[in-house]
Write the structure tokens for this entry.
Amino acid sequence: MSVVRSKILGVGSYLPEKIITNDDLSRMVDTSDEWITERTGIKLRHIASENEKTSDLAYRAAIDALKSAGITSTDLDAILVATTTPDDTFPATATKVQKLLGMQRGFAYDLQAVCSGFMYAMMTADSLIRSGQVKTVLVIGAETLSRLVDWTDRNTCVLFGDGAGAVILTASEGNGTSLDTGILSARVFSDGTYGDLLHTTGGPSSTRTVGTIFMNGREVFRHAVVKLASAAEEVLRNANVSSQELTWLVPHQANLRIIDSTAKKLGIDMSKVVVTVDHHANTSSASIPLALAEKVKTHEIKRGDLLLFDAMGAGFTWGAMLARY
């Protein structure tokens, strides 16, 4: 049976030049490289410069993805940007990227699901492609989380970094089996009752400020492993694929202990898990496309590989996606 699949045509990434190491942070707050590494696996994070906006990072990742795909912006039908740190309250950061790319056709808009944003955007793009409304979509996860960090709070300032990752999806014909190239299964979820566990302390409608990040780390960890594993198991089941058939797990890069615990719960050896949290930190919606692009560029992820993505973020929001690269 012939079906429409959303094939990953190209990937791209951009990380700001400025780097803050754990030793740098130890001179800013009461912490140490040992303390941060033991609890999170993070060694360093990239930080946007004063004149770098989220749209700038997103644009650089988009250019990289277009080059990878061998197409130009005139081939795009839509741009979806997942971000929780937009340049402005409005207009959408996606429309700014659209302008920077010189694209005056199609449409562009933002999605906000925090660390799960890229999963939400990919599923949305996949739905648009499979419905026939578009053929080629640029999906970007881009964040300047350093603008939301309280640099005096050692429990949160050590966790986050800035960056952008991009994926270009295009319509491709498949046979309706797990051997097809492209997105095979995807599911996203949310439960707003957990909103108080991870949030910012402000917003335009409440405090009229952007606020800073607050997190109950112990509770977030407890829920994350269960929800990530559950979402992953559902998309595998929907595609009639076992975890042992996977080539790679490409998880949200929030915390090495969460990644390790989720992999164990799914029965996936860590040798098959992409880990970039040590040198990217948590870049929210950018973390999965950044991790994907890094491993594609080093040729560790190759055409035909079966990839499982999963993420969880504030809200709570969470989701998983299975795709053959």
The CA atoms of residues 247 and 306 lie 5 Å apart. Residues 217-238 form the longest helix (22 residues). The first strand starts at residue 3 and ends at 14. DSSP finds nine helices and 13 strands in the chain.
